[in-house]
Amino acid sequence: MFNSAWAENASFNFSVTPIADNVYSIVSPSFGLPTPENKGWNSNSHFVVTDKGVLLFDTGSSEIIGNEIKKAVKSVTDKPVRWVVNSHSHADHWLGNAGFINTGAEFIASERAVRVMKEDGMGPVDAFSRMTKGATGTTHVKYPTLLLYQGEKRNVGGLDVEFIFSNDGHSPGDVLMWLPKQKIIFGGDVLSSQWMPILTYHGNVPHLIETLYAVAKLNPEIVLTGHGQATSGKSIIRDADLIAGVWKLVKEGYEENKKPGEIMREVSNELGPTYRLLYNNFDSEIKRYVELMYKRQQ
């Protein structure tokens, strides 16, 4: 049995970073899977203070973390969290919803993402508890109930907000949030900063490439990601070009009956000089890219 008392007393440093007028980020210092060391806190949350309350984008991977995010928001404003947007169905971005159950907040996501959340059920809660040796504690599951649709526009507390779907680029039902007046994009795991874009077995690589180029055309001034520091629109173009370049080489190599190892060497030789210095994890991640994209050709 894991020590839940230790989990309840786990210390975090949920510092709030001002991004723009009334826009703030809570950036996790950890990248990767939940571990005992990061106590399950491995993803970012962002929030906007509106005239009528707080709009929160992603809530972390446990009820404990959700409560810490709630405290961090209160360090900036006395206004309540009235809207919670979950960018996608990966548990490190929405299990923290439990911390906002009794706040009267609306929980918002795409229909496809919610469907996957419900299919996963309590599985991620149990898995994260095992992976962190109990640091994520016991989490009540709170699913979003307000469903978004592609291109939907809303006025939230006097704030104009647009929602963009990635067409399952990173995972089924990804949603990005765009503030057109401030030219700020909230990308979840569709957008990346100092780390390589996160490709998944259930994502759609061509759709991800299309989404990245489409979002880049919005000319965002600030890009807020699911992991890593705030960045600019240049990062979106960088990511799109990288993924498109790898996809092209893998597709051509597969059609020429080349083995993954041979394609890997070509990718590293052709793209490494340009991209190796642009990411913290190019060499450790590029092999996985090639293997995943190779399987997509079969």
Automatic annotation (TrEMBL):
<dbReference type="Pfam" id="PF00753">
    <property type="entry name" value="Lactamase_B"/>
</dbReference>
<dbReference type="InterPro" id="IPR036866">
    <property type="entry name" value="RibonucZ/Hydroxyglut_hydro"/>
</dbReference>
<dbReference type="InterPro" id="IPR001279">
    <property type="entry name" value="Metallo-B-lactamas"/>
</dbReference>
<dbReference type="InterPro" id="IPR050855">
    <property type="entry name" value="NDM-1-like"/>
</dbReference>
<feature type="domain" description="Metallo-beta-lactamase">
    <location>
        <begin position="42"/>
        <end position="227"/>
    </location>
</feature>
<protein>
    <submittedName>
        <fullName>Beta-lactamase domain protein</fullName>
    </submittedName>
</protein>
